[in-house]
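ENTRY TYPE: protein
WANTED: fold as tokens:
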Amino acid sequence: FHVHPTFFCCTRIMDYLLSTITLVLLSGSLAAIPEPTKKWTFSQTLDHFTYGEVSAQTFDQRVFEYDKFWSRSDDGSVGPLFVYTGNEGPLESFYQNTGFVFDTAPQFGALIVFIEHRYYGESLPFGQESFEPKFLRFLSSMQATSDFAQVINFYKTHYNITKVVSFGGSYGGMLTAWMRIRYPQLVDIALAASSPLPMMAKTAKPKQAFFQIVTNDFAMSNEQCPTIVRNGFTKLYRLYHEGSSSFDQITNSFKLCSPFNESQFDHLVGWVRNAMLTMAMVDYPYSAEFLGSLPAWPVDAACKIMLNEMTKSNDPMKAIAEAAGLFYNGTNGQKKCFKIYDEFIECADLTGCGTGDEAIAWDWQCCTEFQLATPSNNVTDMFPPLEWNPEIVGKYCREKYGVTPDPVRASREYWSADFETASNIIFSNGLLDPWHAGGVLEDVNDRVKAILIKDGAHHLDLRGHNAKDPESVITARKEEVSLIMTWLRNPIKNDQHYDSLEEKLMNF
């Protein structure tokens, strides 16, 4: 069902569409995400903030497009652009895990576009040399949002598009909110899911720390599980301090591919912590492949594994080893042993930077503009105390990249977390997601809305609808669609719109 753009003026038709969308969102499991109808590269400016030879350099930025839902009429009017602002990873991952855009685009007659973030996936300005410190200087969120603006402007000017809705989850959600703030003439509405902007901006101290929420998630599964985790780490520390005579037990319990030695201790602790926190982040009600091949409700699955191991061996260290193995080996994994340095990379982000080249890129961004999660303390959470303060981060970043973090840069550049004068932004947060404590959890004004999802993990609402979705996410998606439809139908009074960035500048 394609919607002609001129229908946006008709209240009766729009009300009908809202009821139709509700039926679509409740209709069952989503089919596989369709392949892009077009994959292409945009010749992107390397440096948007200088003049001369550097600013003249370009690189190829990947764009995925899907146009089967896009409405185009004989008079030249077209449906809106739905654009996803890419995250810290290859574009394919976000394209395949953002089914909400594909679920809702038919009712809006929207053209779907996903843009890859510079320095991730295949959008590498200097090829494999991109990750050398001398070339990383062109990686920042400001450069990335300028990239997105260029691509969006291309679509607006070449395809007569007048309305743009941006979507993003996690870091991508931060970027999509910033797009509405930096470029209101290009982006009409932004849906920012699981984006911890107040935490990042240091303008709001979370009532709960990241690792406390991870602990609470495990406690909700079974109140014994946090105790098992604490005891498991306690035993690991005890064996470590006993010395080499106990190292074989650590090697065997964690199924390590190479014998454990004392230099690996901190990394092994991080490896386990990373598994626990990531399963809490992606605690989806069905099996999924995002950030790992995991079963439905992975926190419950990990907790059950630990309880079974305690029944079998009464060994809490082996219990946490088996639970971590669920994450790194997946539900149908074939690994006989674990290579912890391949599976987990320590970095400036306590919640992990991923693996491969993407880990270098995200590590750089956390060493320059982002400082997110607070450390664990073993008082309000189940993890060993971890000291991680600006001095330690600064030392790490100077030694690795020769840079010192600027903890207020993003806050300074993007209005901090003060959205009082912003408009048309939806902030959604799942209460199972450890990041939600750092998010926007209350309405700011009539045009900056907060949606809370009781049973939602990390940007669950952006995933495609599924028969196993909890009622809270179904309700949240309906509200998101309603707000988008309403705001498209009722633009802000006196809000001047232009068809292109060039036209906007000409009328400045």
